[in-house]
Every structure is written in C-alpha cells, then in structure tokens.
Specification:
- This protein is of the alpha+beta class and 294 residues long.
- It has two domains: 110 residues, Immunoglobulin-like, CATH 2.60.40; 103 residues, Alpha-Beta Plaits.
- The protein contains five helices and 16 strands.
- The radius of gyration is 28 Å and the shape is elongated.
C-alpha cells in the first residue's frame, strides 16, 4: 500500500521587536569631559556623540540637548542657561558652539544630551565642557599647512595617545596658520592648541609641560613623522610679564620661531647682528640730531 505524502514549503519571517533603547558608548549619565576655547568661532565643532540601537529594524536615532548648567567653582556660581549656548545636529550628533564664551571664562558647562528614536526609548549622557583661555593650553607647531594637518589629525591623536605609558587623552581644538609673537601669520606652518586629560580630569598647564618635557626623547620619532617643530604654550599674556623682562621675553619668542631643524645658529647670529646694527643706527641718528641742534 502506498501513501500519498504532500509537502509544502512554508517561509517564516522572524520580526525583531524594537524593544531596546539607543545607548551611548558610555554608561547612562556618565560624564565625558571636553573643552572649548573662550574665543572659539561660532559653529566650531566641540564633539560628536554617538548612540547605537542594537535592534535590526530600529528607527534612526535623534539627538537633543535637554539641559545646560553653567558652574564657576571659584565663586560657587551655578545656573541653568539657555539650551542654545551649544547646538547639536539631530541626525549626526555633532555638537557645535553657538555663541562667544568670554563671560563664561573660569567655569564649565554640564550639557545633558538625550538620544532617542521612540517616546520611551532613550538614553542620556552628561558632557562637561570647560571654557579655556589660550594661556591655559599648549599647542603643537606643525611644519605643514592647516589642510594637511587637519586630514592627519585623527591619526596623529591616536598615535600620540599611544606614545605615553600613562592613559592620557588629548583634546585638540583647532588647526590654523601659525601666529608669530608679532601678530603676523606664517602660512607655511600650522598651530593646534590642545588640552591634556587624565582619568577624565583636566591636567593643568604646568603638569602638561612636565609630561612633554619628560617624554621628549620618546616622542622624537612621532614629531619627525608628523613634522612637528615644537610644543609650546598656546598663548602668553605679555601684560602679565614684569616690564623689565618684556623685551627679553619678546626677543626669546622671536628667536624660537626660527629655531628648527632646518635653520642653524649661524642664521640666528645674523639676525642678532642685524638687530644690533639697527639699534646702533638709531643711536647714531639721535646723536646726529643732537649735534645738529647745537
């Protein structure tokens, strides 16, 4: 006896229920620390936040600033400020400056950002953004143009952080033409001010200088690879220097501009001789004027 067995193929689609909320890389409400220069241009990028929803059929994640609190520890000030002090792209998570920060110097912002793709599906993160003076930062001086440096900046930052034994993080803020002490621009060089972070805490200027001084020999290959001429203070307030020392300081700063691996001390000596000749010429002119008046 034969049985007539029929077969049919059934296709079953397993639908993934969107039951997971977007998640930032950091845990919920854990702060990440950044900085912004007090004179940063409007629409300067501060950071890019990213939250991920692991559900396959999840809707796109949107980003919103929920609250911004400003604090100045020195005076005990704490106030809620307008949410438009910073702006964030709802789709990309890129946060940018949206004002000038002169009145916020010596303090920091705590920005609460929400990532969501449904009414109850959300995650938040708190971002601490310190308002920094140039005098509180160091800067790299590259012997390259800003466009070239900007392209290599992510790779350079990664290599720089890997060059130190201790876990340091570097916030590099800008790539602009190198400004000399006399205010003129060197269009063949780029300066990038930066902040040193350790365990999400800001490292002060003096400690940062010591870190680089102690690691000078270990960083030589990195400097050569990225054509870095020197590391120096981002900006020095000449007004804070005692009057008798100002001219010495200015001369040293002018000399530093020319001290590179491509220019030797013979050329520096020629510059000094030229300065002396100019000074002597000025003295001679004064003497001639006095004699003429007699």
């Amino acid at each position: 006896m034969f049985q007539n067995l029929d077969e049919i193929q059934v296709k079953i689609n397993v639908i993934d229920v969107d039951d997971n909320a977007p998640k930032f890389a950091q845990s919920n409400n854990v702060s990440t620390t950044l900085g912004v220069k007090v004179n940063a241009p409007i629409y300067t990028e501060v950071t890019k936040l990213e939250a991920v929803d692991v559900d396959a059929d999840a809707l796109p994640v949107n980003y919103h600033i929920e609250k911004i609190v400003y604090q100045r520890p020195r005076t005990g000030l704490r106030e809620i400020v307008d949410n438009n002090v910073f702006i964030i792209d709802q789709l990309t998570g890129v946060m940018q400056t949206n004002t000038t920060y002169g009145r916020y110097a010596d303090g920091y912002f705590e920005v609460t950002v929400k990532a969501s793709n449904a009414p109850q599906m959300k995650d938040t993160i708190k971002v601490q953004i310190f308002v920094l003076q140039d005098t509180e930062l160091l800067r790299f001086v590259f012997n390259r143009d800003p466009t070239t440096v900007q392209k290599k900046l992510p790779e350079f930052t990664r290599d720089l952080e890997g060059a130190f034994a201790q876990p340091l993080r570097f916030n590099i803020y800008d790539t602009e033409f190198y400004s000399k002490v006399d205010g003129s621009l060197d269009f063949g060089r780029t300066s990038s001010c930066f902040q040193v972070m350790s365990d999400d805490q800001v490292v002060d200027l003096k400690t940062s200088e010591n870190i680089f001084a102690e690691s000078q020999s270990d960083l030589e290959d990195l400097y050569q690879q990225y054509d870095i001429v020197r590391v120096e203070v981002c900006s020095i307030n000449v007004a804070d220097i005692p009057s008798p020392l100002k001219w010495i300081f200015l001369f040293q700063r002018c000399a530093e501009i020319f001290v590179t691996d491509k220019i030797d001390w013979i050329e520096i000596s020629l510059l000094v001789i030229g300065a002396l000749i100019g000074t002597l010429a000025l003295i001679a002119a004064c003497v001639l004027c006095c004699l003429y008046n007699r």
